[in-house]
Amino acid sequence: MSADGRTTCRINIEDFEGPLDLLLFLIRRDELDVTTINVAEVADQYLEYIRETEELNLDIAGEYLVMAATLTRMKSRLLLPVERALMEDSEDPMQSLMRHLVLYKAFKEVALELRDSESVWREVFTPPGERDRYEEEIVEFDPGQTSLMDLLLALENMTEKNAPPPQHRVRKPLLSLSECVHTLNTLLPTGSTMGFSTAVGEHPDNAVVVSFFVAVLELVKRGWLSTEQSYPFSDIIMKRKEKRWEMNA
Amino acid sequence: MLDQLARQIEALLVATETPVTISRICELTGCGTESAEQAVERIEAELASGGHAIVVAKLAGGYRIVTDPDLGFIVGQLFEGRRHSRLSRASLETLAVIAYRQPATRAQVEAVRGVNSDSAMRTLLERDLIIITGRQETPGRPLLYGTTSRFLEYFGLSNLEHLPRMDEMENLLKLSVDDIERMASELSGEESDQSI
Amino acid sequence: MLDQLARQIEALLVATETPVTISRICELTGCGTESAEQAVERIEAELASGGHAIVVAKLAGGYRIVTDPDLGFIVGQLFEGRRHSRLSRASLETLAVIAYRQPATRAQVEAVRGVNSDSAMRTLLERDLIIITGRQETPGRPLLYGTTSRFLEYFGLSNLEHLPRMDEMENLLKLSVDDIERMASELSGEESDQSI
Questions:
Q1: pLDDT at A2
Q2: What dihedral angle (degrees, nearest 10) is formed by the CA atoms of B124, A127, C64, C24?
Q3: pLDDT tens for residues C14-61?
Q4: Model confidence, pTM
């Protein structure tokens, strides 16, 4: 399709941040001004590129295909005078696309400027602060600055804290709750009782204890398990109440 | 040779964990705004004339003392393996949209970028560069996101007005939110087709 | 006026979180032991002659630059239990256990966290995020703690049922923004009719 026999294979779909980015690339490559381009021409370029990429059996994200469909529709409208006339009341979708491109282009450029700032400020290091020297117990409080996320991350942290430092930080509890529930389900027939320490086995690591404890809390909360403790730090005695545990209920 | 007020302020700017505002400096040292600002200038001058490795940075609405960026290649070694990677283009674009548009919903970010921005937003939340600020009172009550003071520090900005091209972006964004969202729904082919 | 080696070392000593040994300094800057020691002396002299608020501290493990102890009366104010940005990790962990287990004893909290949680609990009590709800009728009659309405407000929850269930929590920890938003809208009891 391209007049000068230029192949689009040289450009890789993965280099783009989406259909708008690809469109901007095609426009810039042809040294066109975003505001005055011929949509039909750019649409052709775009469609050709998507077609070639598809032929190479490369995965194309849905957004690219949606844009291809939109461009095709715009093109077909251009060829139909009746539709053009009808469209005069509503805004021309091409104008709208152009405005969107201008806006996206501006953000893209800002992102590049932010990248430059990042490069400079990455090289700047702050003193660690001297809180420790002056305050043993800091009360930190500022409503609105803490979110549910912090609470969740704190929980996550608890399950990870006692594990050996992993090479890659894995964002996952060490023992899944469903595994714990499954184990408890097997260990505890309906109506039976068992000590928590028996359930977790001899010499469990802290992560196992935490995972089981959290599972027990959840089961208690659901009224499927009751617990008793005769005195602080004594073993927690668990008693199964419900017959069936349906965690996904 | 620094005077007593400047010494006190210098100590604050070194010991603090977050930038200290001028008003906080005044509060802690008992001096006036103008004296505080002049003292900060004396600190800067004295650090420069001694050839020191640290500088006063104006960040996120306040001041703090940081190491000179030209020594980053040395200091960075201390934190080898712990330094964050650079932000991806997707994250930077997402951050840019949120910064200018804030508070912004995810749908608005995705409308402007034209692509799913889920993983970029997740990265930004995890790195404390954006934060959930509330909910939009529209159907679905989507969450609203804004930038944090960490964001300002990360890019060496003293406040949001110092974002690059603020004027230009403000004008572009006068395209109302509705406009952007409508464009997005047109792009995703969901427009109510009036021509049929 | 500091030379380049002294500047590099000064930057290291300011930015470090733990004292830096001479051998580490040599490793990071590529200089010899004697040069490093002399450079540290030049830094001390330059800081003193400029009347700066910071000094080189020689600690067991090595060197670091800290604020002059005679300015402690100013610096200490920065950390005087005033409003800081966030609850500490210890407090959040403690709060999380109490929120799910309530009423919970301190021993139960400590069993989960594996560390003494005394000061975290005191902080939470002082901040009105937890409250003593009674005593457990077991030997020793330990105090029981629960969360307050302040806690709900703090986390933007309208009631305790809106805390995610533990199994949901597990998913949240692998959270994507999509997930957070969906869960959040479920938590707030709003069925989002608009799936964007």
A1: 42
A2: 30
A3: 999 888 999 999 999 999 999 999 999 999 999 999 999 999 988 767
A4: 0.62
Q: Which residues of C fall within a CB distance of 8 Å from A247?
A: 167
- Cα–Cα distance measured from residue B13 to residue B63, given in angstroms and rounded to the nearest whole number: 7
Interface test with A, best of C92, C106, C115, C123 (most A CBs within 10 A): C92
Least confident of A20-24, A46-50, A143-147, B66-70: A143-147
Is the alpha carbon torsion for C60, C63, C69, C74 positive or negative? negative
Confidence of residue A43 (pLDDT cuts 50, 70, 90): confident
Residue A205, class by beta-carbon neighbours within 10 Å (0-12 exposed, 13-18 middle, 19+ buried)? middle
C139 touches chain A (CB under 8 A): yes
CA B27 to chain centre: 25
Among B2, B10, B118, select the one facing C177 at the smallest CB separation.
B118
Whole-angstrom Cα distance, residue A106 to residue B99?
13
Distance from CA of B192 to the nearest CA of C (A): 16
For residue A105, what are its two tokens?
A: 């282009």
Distance of alpha carbon A153 from alpha carbon A171, whole angstroms: 10
CA triplet A36, A45, A37: central angle to 5 degrees? 0
b or e along C58-79 (b: 16 or more beta carbons within 10 Å of the residue's beta carbon)? eeeebbbbbbbeebeebbeebb
Start-to-end C-alpha separation, chain C: 60
Separation CA A178–CA C70 (nearest Å)? 57
Give the containing element (helix H, strand E) for B44: helix B33-49
Q: Which amino acid is at B150?
A: R
Tell me the C-alpha distance between C100 and A138, whole Å. Answer: 25
With 0-12 CB in 10 A as exposed, 13-18 as middle and 19+ as buried, what is B138?
Answer: exposed
3-class SS of residue B145: strand
Q: SS3 for B170?
A: helix
CB B25 within 8 A of CB B9: yes
CA angle B32, B33, B38 (to 5 degrees): 100
CA quadruple A49, A54, A55, A59: dihedral sign: positive
How many beta carbons lie within 10 A of that of residue C24, not counting itself?
19
Find all residues with CB under 8 Å of A101, minimum gap 6, and list them.
Answer: A20, A23, A24, A27, A34
